[in-house]
Amino acid sequence: MKQHLLDQAPEEWEMENGPAYRRRVLSQWVFGKRATSFEQMTSLPLPLRTELAGRYQLRSLRLARRLQNGDGVQKLLWELKGGEAVESVLIPAESDAASRRLTLCLSSQVGCAYRCVFCASGLLGFRRNLSSGEIVEQLLQAEEIVGRRVDNLVFMGMGEPLANWEVLLRSLRLLTAPWGLAMSPRRITISTSGLVPEIRRLAEEPLAVGLAVSLHAASDALRSRLMPVNRKHPLPLLLEACDEYSRKKRQRITLEYILLAGINDSEDEAARLSRIARRLRAKINLIPYNRVDSLPWNSPSPAQVDRFENLLLESRCRVTVRRRKGEEIFAACGQLRLAAFPDSSPTIQACR
C-alpha cells in the first residue's frame, strides 16, 4: 500500500527524479494550493509526478457520512484504509455572523485505551493510532467541504493525543511550520486525560500550543473512580505537571470538567475544584454531561449547573459553561463511539 505523503516531513520525501529544491515546490502544492493529486502539480516535471504517484498518496480518508444540525455543527465520518472509521466535528462559534469562527475537533486514535467511565470512546476500546497524514487530512478535507479555513483546532476527538506522541509532534509540525499549513500554535489545543510524563515532555517542546486537561473530579478518590488513568498518574503529580506546563509556556491551561448529576457536582467538589483552578491560574470549562446510551450517568439540571458555576465564580475562578451543541446528532462532548444510524450503516458518534 502506498504511504501517505504527510506521514513524512518534506525533508524525508523520496524524490529520485528531482533535485532537493523540488521539495519546496511540492510543499507549495500540498499545503498552499491544496492539491489532491500529483497530476495537478503541473510545475513539477512529469517523471517526478509519475514517481511520486507510484510511491505516495495524498488522500486516504473517504467521507462516508456528513450530518449537520440546526446550530451549524457538522459531524464528518471518515472511513480509513482497512475499514476502521473516525470522526471530526466542525463547531461554529456562537455568533450569528456569516464570518463566525470555526473550530475543528480532530481525532488522533481509533478508539481509546483509557476507559473513562462516562465517555463513549472507551466502549470501543483501543484499535490503533492514526498517522500524521490521517490527522492532518481531517483538516484538509474538512476545509474543502466547507469552502473556508478553520480558525481553531482542538485535539479532543476520539483517542488520547499524548498517547500517540511521535505522530502528534509530526502533525503539529505539519500544521504550524511556515512551509506547512502555517497555523498559529495558539490556535491549537491538545486535550489529555492526564498523562503526566507526556505533559512534561510537551512543556519542553518549542510550540506553545494550548493544553486542556480532562479533570472531571477534584479529589484522588473520585477521579480514580471516574478515570482509571488517575491510578497511574494521581492528582498531585498531574497538578505538578500542569504547574510546569503553565509556567514554561506562560499561558493558562483549561480544566475540562464534565458535570455528572449527584457524582461530582456537590459544594465540596466545587470548593476543591476552585482551589485547584486558583493554584494553576487555570480556566474551568464546565460541560453538562451528554447522554450516552448504555451508560448510567445523568446530566444535572440547568439550575444545578448554574449553582455549581456560581460557587466557582464566588471563589474568583474563571469559568465558562459549554452549552450543548450537536447532541442530537451525537456530535457532543463524550459521545464518540461505534453506533448505528437509522439506515443501519455502522458509524461513530463524536466528540469527547
Runs in which pLDDT lies below 50 for 5 or more consecutive residues are 325-352
The number of domains is 2
Coarse structural class:
alpha/beta
* Largest sheet descriptor: 10 strands, mixed
Mean pLDDT: 90
Q: Which features would summarize this protein structure in a list?
A:
elongated; DNA polymerase, domain 1; 32% helix; 352 residues; TIM Barrel; 20% strand; alpha/beta; single chain
Could you provide a short overview of the structure?
It contains 11 helices and 16 strands. By secondary structure, the protein is an alpha/beta fold. The chain has 2 domains: 3-56, DNA polymerase, domain 1, CATH 1.10.150; 61-349, Aldolase class I (TIM Barrel, Alpha-Beta Barrel).
What features would you describe in this structure?
- The chain is an alpha/beta fold and 352 residues long.
- The chain folds into 2 domains: 3-56, DNA polymerase, domain 1; 61-349, TIM Barrel.
- Helix content is 32%, strand content 20%.
- It is built from 11 helices and 16 strands.
- It has helices spanning 22-32, 46-55, 121-124, 132-146, 165-176, 196-204, 220-226, 229-232, 235-249, 267-280, 302-314, and strands at 3-4, 56-57, 62-68, 74-79, 85-92, 102-105, 109-110, 128-129, 152-155, 188-192, 210-214, 254-259, 283-288, 318-321, 337-340, 346-349.
- A 10-stranded mixed sheet has the order 3-4-5-6-9-10-11-12-13-14, covered by helices on one side. Strands 1-2 form a two-stranded parallel ribbon. A two-stranded antiparallel sheet has the order 7-8.
- Strand 12, helix 10 and strand 13 form a beta-alpha-beta unit.
- Helix 6 runs parallel beside helix 9 (235-249) and helix 10 (267-280) packs across helix 11.
- Residues 325-352 have low confidence and may be disordered.
